[in-house]
Write a structure and sequence with these properties.
The complex is a heterodimer. Chain A is built from seven helices and eight strands; from the N terminus they run αβαββαβααβαβββα. Chain A is an alpha/beta fold. In chain A, a hairpin with a 2-residue loop joins β2 (76-84) and β3 (87-95). In chain A, α4 packs across α6. By secondary structure, chain B is an alpha/beta fold. Among the domains of chain B are: 1-131, Beta-Lactamase; 321-387, no CATH class; 395-616, P-loop containing nucleotide triphosphate hydrolases (Rossmann fold, 3-Layer(aba) Sandwich). Classes of the chains: A alpha/beta, B alpha/beta. At the A-B interface, α1, α2, α4 and α6 of A face β1, α1, α14, α15 and β18 of B. Chain B: Residues 212-224 have a biased composition (Basic and acidic residues). Chain B: This is SRP54-type proteins GTP-binding domain-containing protein. Chain B: GO terms for molecular function: GTP binding; GTPase activity; signal recognition particle binding. Chain B: Its main location: endoplasmic reticulum.
C-alpha cells in the first residue's frame, strides 16, 4: 500500500510539474534556461535593396551553386558551414528581403550578429544611391550596430555588368550622400514616445567634418563580387573567396 | 497559351520554372511586392501591364506557385492548373521540401524532375477546358430541361400528369392524404383547362408530347410555385412518425432503439395521469412523441457528462500539438484580435481585413509542440501591423527640400488639407517653426479665404514665429484677403516665393467636409494648378470609422476633378490631437492602411514645439497591449 501511495504522489507531482512548465512556457519564454543558454553568436546578416543579389549570395553559401532567384517575400535563414582552405566555420546566415516594408526585420537578428553584408547593385548605383544610402544610414544608426561596432562589408555585386562601377567610386558616392543624410536626419523631429532619451540621436562620424567611413567605429570593407550564371555563358564568379574569408574572419 | 510558370520558395529561390516564351521577370516582382504591401488580396489574380498572374502559396512549406499569361487570353483553367500543380508538387516532393534538400551539389541541378508531371497536368487542364468549352458551345441546354418549360402549357400539363400518376401510386398505400392532394390537383387542373380553352388546336400535339414524356419515365419534380403538396411535405418531415403505414412494427423498433440508448431506470417518471415528467419538456401521451423526447433527453445527458472532460479537452486543444492550422482553428482567436483592434479605435472594416490577412498568413502553418495558437497569432499580428505602418517612401522632408532647392532652384511647396477644425493652421505653424529652426526661409500662403479670422490667425502665428526664431531666417505671410479664389492666391504665393528666394511655401487651405462637392472641386483645382510637392492631410487622432471615409473621399475628389494624367493623391498625413487619445492609437493604423501613405508628424499639444515624428514600434506596442 505504501508503495502505491508513493506512486500516486510521484505521479501527481509529475503532472503538476508538467502543467506548470507548459503554462509557464507560454507566458515566459524559458528557452534561455533550457537549452538556449549557450547560444553561439555566429550570425551574419545579408542586407540590401531589392534585386541587388542578396538571395543569390545566400544560396551560394548554402548550396555552393549560383541559383536563379526572384523577389523574396520571407527571410532566408539557416546555419551553414562555410569552408575555406582547411577551415570550416558554422555561420547562421540570414537574408532579409529588401522590400522597404520588410527591412526592419533585421533588428531582430542583431543580438547574435557578428557582421553585416550590405549588398549593392554596382550597375544601378547611379540611379538608386539615395535609397541605398538611406538604408545604410538606418543600419549604421541602429543602436546595436553602433554600440557593438558590428563590422560591415559593402558588397559591390554584379561587377560583371558593363554598366557597373568600381567599389572605390561607389564608396565616394555613398559617403557623399551619407554626409547629406546625416545633416537632415539629425535635424528631424524627435519621435512622440521618446521621453527625453537621446538614444536615437547617434551622430555618424566626426562633427563639422565631411563624412567618411573611416570616422565610424565599425570596420567597413568593400568587396567586389559577381555571381552570374546564364545558359549561354560560363558562370562568372568574382570575389566569392574574399567573401568567405571575410565571413570566417568575423567569426574567429 | 501559358507564358511562364514558376515554383519558388517564399525566400525567393526558384525551384522549378518553365518559360514558354521569354519574358522579363518584372511582372513577378510586381506581384510579390503587391503581396507584401497590401494586406488583402481577395481573389488570387493579379494583373500588370498585359500580363495576368494567378498564384497559390503553401505556408506549410513556404512555397509560392505563380502562373503568368497574357491578359487578353482569358484562360479560365489556370486556377485549376495552379491548384493541381501545387497539389502534385507538394505531394511528390514532400520529404525533399521538408528537409529543404532542394539541390544536388554534384550534379549542380535541382532535385526535382517536375517537367513531365507538369506537362501532363497542363495538357489535361487544357483538354478539360477545351472539352467543356466545346460541349457548352455545341449543346445548349434542352428547352425541356429549363425552368421556363415548366411555365409553358406543355410543361405544366406534363407536370400535372406526373403529379396525377404519383398520386395514384401513393393512394394505394396512403388514403389519408388523398383529399388534400386532390383538392390541390383539382384547382390546378381547372386553371390549366381554362388556359387551354382558347387554343384547342394545339391539343393534338400536346397529347403527343405528353405521351413522349411518359415514355421518358417520370421524375420527381419539386414545385417552386410556393404551394406545398403532401408529397413534398413528406419529404420534409423528418420526424419518426414518417412511415405511418406499418406503425406497429415501427413502434417496436423505436422501443428497441430507446432501450439501447438509455436504461429504463434513468428515464423520467410517468405520472398516474400519463404525464411524462422530464426536465422542462412537457410531453403528451402519444408513444411516438415520447420516444422522440427520450432522444432529446439522451442528448442532453451526454452533453452534461461530457462537460468536465471537454473543459480539460479544450485546454489541450488550445495547445494544438503538432498539427497544421486550418482556417476554422483560427476563426475564433482572429475574431478576438479584431475586436481588440476595434477597441483601440481602428476602423471596423480595416480591423477585419487585417484579421483576414493574418489568417491567410497562418493557414497551413505547422504548430510546434505544445504551442498555443495565440502565441502564433501575436507575432504574426505584430509583423502585419508593422508592415502596414512602415512607410513605403522616405519621410525625410528636409532632404527633399534640399534636393528641390539644389536641382530645380525653386521653393518646396506643401499644401495642408483636411476637414474643419482638425488643426490645419495650428499644425502648419508648428511645421513652420521646425523648418525655421533648421534655418530655412518660409512663406505662408493664406488660402483659407472663407472662414473669418483665418488670415488674422496666421498673421499672429507669423509674428510669434518671427520673434521665436533665429535672426537670419525669414518667415512671411502672403495674403490677398477674403473671398478670392484660393488657387490663384496659391499660384501668386509660389511665384512670389520663387522670386524672393524662399525655401518652402506652406499653403493653408479652408477646412471642408469630404461630401461638399463644390469645395472639393476647388481643392482639386488648387492642387492641379499649383502642383505642390506634398499634399498633407491633417486628421484627428480621435476619429474612428469616419477616417476611412474622409481619406477615401479626399483621394477620390483629387483624382476625379483633376485633369487626366495629372492626378494626385494625398502624400502624407499629420495626425493631430495625438496627446488626447492615450493608447487608442487606432486612427494611425486606419489612415496608413487606407492611403498607404506615411504619417509624417503627430501633433501632441498646443505649443510650437509639440510636433513630433512617429515611432512605429511604440504605435504597434500600444495597439497590441491590453
Amino acid at each position: 500500500m505504501n508503495y502505491f501511495e508513493i506512486f500516486i504522489w510521484v505521479l501527481s507531482f509529475a503532472i503538476v510539474a508538467f502543467l506548470l512548465f507548459t503554462v509557464l512556457n507560454h507566458r515566459v519564454d524559458l528557452s534561455f534556461v533550457f537549452g538556449g543558454a549557450g547560444k553561439k553568436k555566429n550570425g551574419i546578416l545579408i542586407l540590401g535593396l531589392p534585386d541587388s543579389g542578396k538571395t543569390t549570395i545566400w544560396a551560394w553559401f548554402r548550396y555552393t551553386l549560383v541559383l536563379p532567384t526572384q523577389t523574396s517575400m520571407k527571410v532566408n535563414e539557416e546555419e551553414i558551414p562555410v569552408h575555406l582552405m582547411d577551415k570550416t566555420v558554422n555561420v547562421f546566415l540570414t537574408d532579409i528581403p529588401g522590400n522597404i516594408k520588410l527591412r526592419h526585420q533585421f533588428i531582430q537578428y542583431l543580438p547574435i550578429c557578428k557582421g553585416i553584408m550590405f549588398v549593392v547593385d554596382s550597375s544601378k548605383i547611379d540611379e538608386n544611391y539615395q535609397e541605398v544610402s538611406e538604408y545604410l544610414y538606418d543600419v549604421l544608426t541602429s543602436t546595436q550596430v553602433f554600440e557593438q561596432k558590428i563590422p560591415i562589408a559593402i558588397i559591390c555585386n554584379k561587377r560583371d555588368d558593363e554598366k557597373s562601377i568600381k567599389g572605390t567610386e561607389i564608396k565616394l558616392k555613398i559617403e557623399d550622400e551619407l554626409n547629406h543624410l546625416r545633416s537632415t536626419r539629425t535635424l528631424a523631429l524627435d519621435s512622440h514616445d521618446d521621453n527625453g532619451s537621446y538614444k536615437d540621436d547617434i551622430y555618424l562620424g566626426i562633427q563639422d567634418e565631411k563624412f567618411e567611413f573611416l570616422h565610424i567605429p565599425n570596420q567597413v570593407a568593400f568587396i567586389e563580387t559577381s555571381f552570374q550564371s546564364s545558359l549561354d555563358k560560363s558562370p562568372v564568379l568574382i570575389g566569392h573567396s574574399e567573401l568567405s574569408s571575410w565571413v570566417i574572419d568575423r567569426l574567429e | 497559351m501559358l507564358d511562364y510558370f514558376v515554383i519558388a520558395t517564399q525566400g525567393g529561390i526558384i525551384l522549378w520554372s518553365k518559360a514558354f516564351v521569354t519574358i522579363p521577370d518584372l511582372p513577378i516582382s510586381k506581384l510579390i511586392n503587391s503581396l507584401i504591401e497590401t494586406t488583402s488580396i481577395e481573389n488570387q489574380r493579379f494583373s500588370y501591364n498585359s500580363y495576368q498572374m494567378n498564384w497559390a502559396v503553401s505556408n506549410e512549406l513556404g512555397l509560392i506557385f505563380i502562373a503568368v499569361y497574357q491578359k487578353i487570353l482569358q484562360l479560365t483553367y489556370i486556377d485549376d492548373l495552379v491548384y493541381s500543380v501545387k497539389k502534385k508538387f507538394v505531394g511528390d516532393y514532400k520529404t525533399l521540401l521538408v528537409n529543404k534538400d532542394f539541390f544536388d551539389k554534384k550534379t549542380q541541378k535541382a532535385n526535382f524532375d517536375f517537367e513531365p508531371s507538369f506537362t501532363k497536368l497542363y495538357k489535361s487542364a487544357e483538354q478539360t477546358d477545351l472539352v467543356s468549352k466545346t460541349y457548352k458551345a455545341e449543346k445548349p441546354r434542352n428547352f425541356e430541361d429549363s425552368k421556363k418549360f415548366q411555365k409553358t402549357l406543355v410543361g405544366s400539363k406534363q407536370a400535372i400528369k406526373d403529379l396525377t400518376s404519383q398520386k395514384n401510386d401513393s393512394s394505394a398505400t396512403n388514403s389519408e392524404f388523398d383529399s388534400d392532394d386532390m383538392a390541390i390537383l383539382k384547382t390546378r387542373k381547372k386553371g390549366i383547362q381554362m388556359r387551354t380553352f382558347e387554343n384547342k388546336k394545339s391539343k393534338k400535339t400536346n397529347s403527343n408530347n405528353t405521351d413522349n414524356t411518359e415514355k421518358k419515365g417520370k421524375s420527381k419534380r419539386i414545385w417552386d410555385d410556393g404551394t406545398v403538396n403532401k408529397e413534398y411535405m413528406k419529404d420534409l418531415d423528418f420526424s419518426s412518425s414518417k412511415n405511418k403505414e406499418n406503425t406497429t412494427e415501427n413502434e417496436k423498433t423505436d422501443m428497441v432503439d430507446v432501450d439501447q440508448l438509455v436504461d429504463q431506470h434513468s428515464l423520467g417518471v410517468r405520472g398516474s395521469d400519463g404525464v411524462y415528467q422530464v426536465a422542462s419538456i412537457g410531453s403528451t401521451e402519444d408513444g411516438n412523441e415520447i420516444s422522440s423526447d427520450d432522444n432529446l433527453d439522451v442528448k442532453d445527458k451526454s452533453s452534461n457528462t461530457g462537460w468536465g472532460a471537454t473543459r480539460i479537452g479544450n485546454f489541450f486543444k488550445t495547445l494544438a500539438n503538432g498539427k497544421v492550422l486550418t482556417s476554422s482553428d483560427l476563426n475564433e482567436p482572429i475574431a478576438k484580435m479584431c475586436e481588440h483592434l476595434i477597441n483601440k479605435n481602428v476602423a471596423a472594416n480595416i480591423a477585419r481585413s487585417i484579421g483576414e490577412s493574418v489568417k491567410k498568413e497562418l493557414v497551413g502553418v505547422k504548430v510546434g509542440g505544445m504551442q498555443k495558437i495565440s502565441s502564433l497569432i501575436y507575432p504574426a499580428m505584430e509583423n502585419t501591423l508593422r508592415r502596414i505602418l512602415t512607410p513605403s517612401t522616405s519621410t525625410d522632408m528636409l532632404r527633399d527640400i534640399q534636393q528641390v532647392h539644389k536641382k530645380e532652384n525653386r521653393p518646396y511647396t506643401l499644401v495642408f488639407v483636411g476637414v474643419n477644425g482638425v488643426g490645419k493652421s495650428t499644425n502648419l505653424s508648428k511645421v513652420c517653426f521646425w523648418l525655421l529652426q533648421n534655418n530655412l526661409r518660409v512663406l505662408i500662403a493664406a488660402c483659407d479665404t472663407f472662414r473669418s479670422g483665418a488670415v488674422e490667425q496666421l498673421r499672429v502665428h507669423v509674428r510669434n514665429l518671427r520673434a521665436l526664431s533665429p535672426d537670419d531666417c525669414k518667415v512671411d505671410l502672403f495674403e490677398r484677403g477674403y473671398g478670392k479664389d484660393s488657387a490663384t492666391i496659391a499660384k501668386e504665393a509660389i511665384n512670389y516665393g520663387e522670386t524672393n528666394g524662399y525655401d518652402v511655401v506652406l499653403i493653408d487651405t479652408a477646412g471642408r467636409m469630404q461630401d461638399n462637392e463644390p469645395l472639393m472641386r476647388a481643392l482639386s483645382k488648387l492642387v492641379s494648378v499649383n502642383k505642390p510637392d506634398k499634399i498633407v492631410f491633417v486628421g484627428e487622432a480621435l476619429v474612428g470609422n469616419e477616417a476611412v471615409q474622409q481619406l477615401t473621399k479626399f483621394n477620390q475628389a483629387l483624382l476625379n476633378y483633376s485633369p487626366p494624367n495629372e492626378s494626385r493623391v494625398i502624400d502624407g498625413i499629420i495626425l493631430s490631437k495625438f496627446d488626447t487619445i492615450d493608447d487608442k492609437v487606432g486612427a494611425a493604423l486606419t489612415m496608413t492602411h487606407v492611403t498607404g501613405k506615411p504619417i509624417l508628424f503627430v501633433g501632441t499639444g498646443q505649443t510650437y514645439t509639440d510636433l513630433k515624428g512617429i515611432k512605429i514600434s511604440s504605435i504597434v506596442q500600444s495597439l497590441l497591449k491590453d
